[in-house]
Structures are given as C-alpha cells and as structure tokens.
Amino acid sequence: MNPWLVLILLILVAGYLLDCLVSLLNLRALSPELPQEFRGVFDDTEYARSQSYTRVRTKFSLVSSTASTICTLAFLLLGGFNFVDIFVRSFDFGPVTTGLIFTGVLMLLTSLLGLPFSIYSTFVIEERFGFNRTTLSTFVLDMCKAALLAVILGGPILALILWFFEKTGDNAWLFCWLAVVLFSILVQFLAPVLIFPLFNKFFPLEEGELKKRIMAYAEKERFQIQGVFTMDGSKRSTKLNAFFTGFGRFRKIVFYDTLIEKLTTEEIVAVLAHEMGHFKCRHILKMLAASILQTGIMFYLLSLLLNNSEMFAALGMEHVSVYASLFFFGFLYTPVNTVVSILFHYLSRKHEYEADAYAVASTGDAESLVSGLKSLSQANLSNLTPHPVTVFLEYTHPPVLQRIEAIRKL
C-alpha cells in the first residue's frame, strides 16, 4: 500500500479516536453533585437537565463524527475524488474554473452529508431542551444565504489562490498568504455592515438606565464606540450572548435580546467590561497576529506538497492538479492544525482570565461579574465540570468554576 495513503488513513483514524476519547472522558467527568458555588442558582432538577444536555450533545457529536469519518474513508478508498475530478474536467474549462467547480461539488456533498445532523441538532435536541426558536423557513434561508456568501466571498479568494499557484512559481505561497490576510481584514470591516444584517436585525438600545450606565462606563474608560445595539438572537435560540464588532470609532456593542431579558443592569455592565478588556489588553490584535503567522506557515507547507504525484497516485487520481492538492493537504495538515489549535485555545483561555481581571479592576464590582457568569451558565445549560483533557484540547474559555475562583482571588 502506498505510504501516502497509509499516512492519510492513519491521520483520519487517529483524529477520530482522539475525538472519541475526549468525548468519553468528558462524559465520565460529569458529576451528579451540584457544585457548592452554584447552589441557589441551579436547583436539582435544572442541574440534572444541564447534565442531560451535555450527555445528549456529546453522544450526538460522537454519532456525527463516526458518520463523517466512515463517509470520508469510503470516499477516499473508493476513488471519490477521482470520480469528481473526471466529472469536472469533462466541462473542459481552464484549471482555475475547473478547480472552483471541483471545490463546489465537494462542498455540496459535504453539506448534504451534514444536513440531516444539522436538522436533528436544531429541531430535535435544541427543541427538546427549550433552546430552539428557529423556524423551518429561517433554517432554509440561513443555508441559502450562507451558500451565497461562500460563492461571493470564497469563490474569488479561492480563484486567486489557484491562479497564484498556477502562475507565480516558487513564491506563490507568499502571494497567497498576503492575499488571504488582506481579504480577511477586509471582511472584518465589511461583516458588521454587509454580512451580519443578512442574518439578524440590529436595533439601537432603548434609552434608559441600562444605556446610561453603559455609555457612562465607556466614557470613563475612554472607549470610543459608534453605538449600543440589541440583536434578535431569540429568532433562533434562547441562549445568551454579547459581543463587540467593528474597529476604531466604528466599534459597536451588541447584546442578544435574550441577554437583556435575563441579566441585571449590573451584570450586563460587567459582561461589557469583560468584552472591553479584550480590546484594552490587545487580545484581538495578538490573536490576529498569531492567525496571520499560522496562515503563512500553512501556505508554505502547502507549497512543499503541491502536485505530489505519489500522493495523487495513492488516492487513485488520474490527473495531478493544484486544486486537488489543496484538499489532500488538508488531510495531512490535520495534526499540525491540532497542535496549533491547542496553542490558540491556551492563549484564548489566558486572555479570558485577563479580561475578567480588567472587568473587576475597571468596575470595582467582582460579584456582578460572578453572578453574570452564573446566569449565563444557567441559561445556556453549561457543563460545570468538563474533563481537563477536554478543556486542554477544545475549550477557548476556562470552565466557569475556574473563572469564578480566579475572580474571587482578585
């Protein structure tokens, strides 16, 4: 058996087994005893419900991962990539257009495979636990809008990447790196104006005590914002969230309407202070710089494996191409991506602690941040006792009990 095929199969199977191990460890870590910190927040019935939610979602993730792995292995071993390649080549377009069609077909197949799981997750699991408010029409419209955005935004950048690798020789990875970085930054500016409104409606926060407190805090911290908005998050789910969007004087504070309904004014200001802490501590710029570096490394490694005839032969391909190389590289890059993700998650968790510390220092109100975190955990049925391995590999935020402990130490 071709060593490239063996390597790719090992990577796929190892990744699947790691997912299974993490999921099983997380299930075993569930504790039937409500943590002391949350007594008075959860009652016994509600806590049992939160654990049931974690079990159901974890088991569902295992089923989804199993189906995805089996289909991917079958597609590889049965020559699925070659079949699609022969099909798209029959249109007799140039390499860039052929690559776009090849990518489009594979994305369509992937979407069709994931569709039943997405439907079940939204309309069965989330419905069962009282989260879902997505209607069938909203679900379908979201899919259509996402597909249209993939074509409008993803198509041109993919075409540019293919063209660079086809035409610019050994330095193609540098041009690709620069193009993707510039495109990503552009999207960050355009998203609040052109993309977000496609999926949700944004309304200026009504005049009142909450808005006065928010604006007073922002002025005290010399934090320039364009406005404070609420978003119709309840259109899809009852879960709570808040975020900043935009840059410089175009920054906006956005609260889900569900969060406004559930949290007190003090808790909302504490959540805002935490989000502001990410800006003040330059976390966004640091993560952006790390992401840019990661993208450059990825494109450089891709350039080393581009058009590898032995790898194409291993996967039963009759023709060597740049566009198929992108997909095959994706399999080989998985272990590297896992290591990079662990590093990014570690930095993200560290940043959460720092943002909490900023919130406490700038408001002088640790208890409102603690109670806000508790309210968020209760409303979202968060897992209070995740396994340390799961946290290490997958969590971008520290477990809520560890965050509260760190806040109390402040």
Automatic annotation (TrEMBL):
Q: What keywords would UniProt list here?
A: Endoplasmic reticulum, Hydrolase, Membrane, Metal-binding, Metalloprotease, Protease, Transmembrane, Transmembrane helix, Zinc
Q: Is Nucleotide-binding among the key words of this record?
A: no
For activity, the cofactor(s) needed are: Zn(2+)
Q: Is Endoplasmic reticulum given among the entry's keywords?
A: yes
Under the heading InterPro entries, the entry gives: CAXX_Prtase_1 (IPR027057), Peptidase_M48 (IPR001915), Peptidase_M48_N (IPR032456)
Residues annotated as transmembrane: 6-27, 60-81, 101-125, 146-165, 171-196, 284-302, 322-344
Origin: domain of life: Bacteria
One Gene Ontology term of the biological-process aspect is: CAAX-box protein processing
Q: How does it sit in the membrane?
A: Multi-pass membrane protein
State the PANTHER family in the record: CAAX PRENYL PROTEASE 1
> What protein family is recorded?
Belongs to the peptidase M48 family.
The molecule here is called: STE24 endopeptidase
Source organism: Desulfopila aestuarii DSM 18488
From the broadest rank down, the organism's phylogenetic lineage runs: Bacteria, Pseudomonadati, Thermodesulfobacteriota, Desulfobulbia, Desulfobulbales
